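[agent] plan:
  1. take the single chain provided in the ticket
  2. run structure prediction with default settings
  3. attach structure tokens to the ticket
  4. add a short note for the reviewer (M.T.)
[agent] executing step 1
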Amino acid sequence: MDDGGGRVPSRRRIAHDRRVVALAALSGIPGLVLALWLIGTVGLTAPIRLLVSVLLVAGWGAALRALHERVVRPLQTLANMLAALREGDFSIRARLPDEGATDALSLTFHELNALERLLREQRLGAVEATETLRKILEEVDVALFAFDEDNRLRLVNRSGERLMGRAADRMEGMTAEELRLDDALHGVVPRTVELSYPGGEGRWELRRSVLRQEGLRLRLLVLSDLSRALREEERQAWKRIIRVLSHEINNSLAPITSISTSLQELLERDPRPPDLEEDVTRGLIVIQARAAALGRFMASYATLARLPEPSLAEVKFGTLVRRVADLETRLPVEIEGEPITIEADADQLEQVLINLIRNAVDASLEDGHQAWDRVRVRWVADRSTITVFVEDEGPGVGETANLFVPFFTTKPGGSGIGLALSRQIAEGHGGILELENRPGDERGARARLVLPLRRDG
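[agent] step 2 finished; step 3 output follows
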């Protein structure tokens, strides 16, 4: 008999059914003795008394055996049913002599049958759900790999088989290192990785998750092929870049070509005009200015193209904001927020704040400076992120679709890369940057920058 801890005591104990029979026998001994004494006192011959005594003892023994059967059989039935349920066999049911019986044993069998029906329905539902999930996993157009705690493959879908160029039964049990997926189990996610396998190569989006199968904790790798989508995005991006470059270059080359032609005609005149030197000087100044503007434009484009990965380190955010605010002298910059330390690239984050505060001041000065105009920088933090608001008191934003498009600007002399560069830096830190009008009746716009306090991996 189990002692509740999975151990069986070494001291031998009488079985439950034998204890019941022994107790019944003990309770019947006084009656048996009395009956035998009464038989001996009545006037019967010795053979008759012997026969009656034998029959009486035999009947008492038969009754004990019947009692033993009545005790053992129901318990054996209960044990067999519970063992079957434990093994997942739901085909065994207890037969009730009377469905309406209310005795303890009938109620026990009734509840056990109800438990069997419930477990059978749950098992059927689980099997159907598992089969449905398996079908879905097989049909989805992403490669799925599940690894156990020892980094051994336990599950792979059809897309994963195609990517690896191997059947699932040949890969199961292989380590992530053998499948060249060891790096995918570490680092920041989601991210884009370069992979080359027999079934495909190129850029893939990597995601990770955790699932459990039969109580086993598995790490799930999800690989989505980005090649086709990225090729289309690259094609559209090249179209936009070529359109912008063509516009800017033509705007510079057209006046340069026109002025160069005019200067050439002046030099070919005979006699030359008396103000030739003055005309040539003015023309060269215009050519120089347009060439310098074209150079600045190309330098701005190169800044976007060469933005490095952020070098993360601990940054005291309040100190950084105050240092940037001190650079702005046109309007007061209010600062509101609790001291906090985040993990970021200080140089890149400083560039974002410079751009946002400068834009906020430009917007506030757009309708003319008022004595009460000011820019406010405030931040709030939760357990995982910090949200920074840069608010101005300008006219607000009207058209938001092109605000973050490179080289798009509404300011005279603007480069059009400030917001685009700032968003690129924010996303490089795993954050977001948005520009919107201030809520309610408040005048002006606000930039909302959300950054993680710490980067995983």
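[agent] step 4 note for reviewer: Residues 4-11 have pLDDT under 50 and may be disordered.
[agent] ticket updated
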